[in-house]
Amino acid sequence: MSLVVRGRALVYGDKIDTDVIIPAKYLVYTDPKLLGEHAMEGIDPEFPKKASPGVVLVAGKAFGIGSSREQAAIALKGAGVRAVIAESFARIFYRNAINVGLPVLQVGGIREAVAEGDELEVRIEDGEVRNLTRGVTIRTNPLRGLPLEILKKGGLLEYVRGV
């Protein structure tokens, strides 16, 4: 099974921290849908509405810096984010995203190649982001090994259940 994700791009900047992704006051909740209703509200109150049809979040450097809360990745997924493509990730967010089944791909120069609203096709296993609006393909290192297998199963819990 190949891991391919399609969606309209929502584009954000550098150093989006986990407090921005999901504010601490919502950490008492566990429901992904409820967390998704508050995702990114500090910088984009309309984010849940924009993300609900299913989107690809595109960001700059150091996406997911800050605390190690896995609720950040859960909130994005609950809001409708199908994948996160960034120039670079905080290591713990990157791993949390994989563990909850949210595809992530590090792609240098992605913000210059994508504009808000562009239709993207992300091929995690091939390390490709196809900007279908502009007719451009950006290549990077593909995800391989155990992280890819975890994503294919839908997250770490599903992976462990199937082993």
Structural write-up:
The protein has 163 residues and is an alpha/beta fold. It has a single domain (4-162), classed as Aconitase, domain 4, CATH 3.20.19.10. The chain is built from 8 helices and 7 strands. The protein has helices at 18-21, 32-36, 47-51, 71-79, 91-99, 110-113, 145-153, 156-162; strands spanning 4-11, 55-59, 81-86, 104-106, 119-123, 128-131, 136-139. A 7-stranded mixed sheet has the order 4-3-2-1-5-6-7. A hairpin with a 4-residue loop joins strand 5 and strand 6. Helix 7 (145-153) packs across helix 8. The longest helix is centred in the middle third of the chain and has 9 residues, at 71-79. The protein is globular and about 45 Å long.
**What is the structural class?**
alpha/beta
Structural domain count: 1
Count of β-strands: 7
- CATH architecture heading: Alpha-Beta Barrel
The description of the largest β-sheet is:
7 strands, mixed
Number of helices: 8
Strand content: 15-25%
Helix percent reads: 25-40%
Euclidean distance between termini CA atoms: 17 Å
Mean of residue pLDDT values: 95
Listing every helix as H and every strand as E from the N terminus to the C terminus, the arrangement reads: EHHHEHEHEHEEEHH
**CATH homologous superfamily - what is it?**
Aconitase, domain 4
Shape: globular
CATH first level: which class? Alpha Beta
Rounded to an integer, what's the Rg over CA atoms? 14 Å
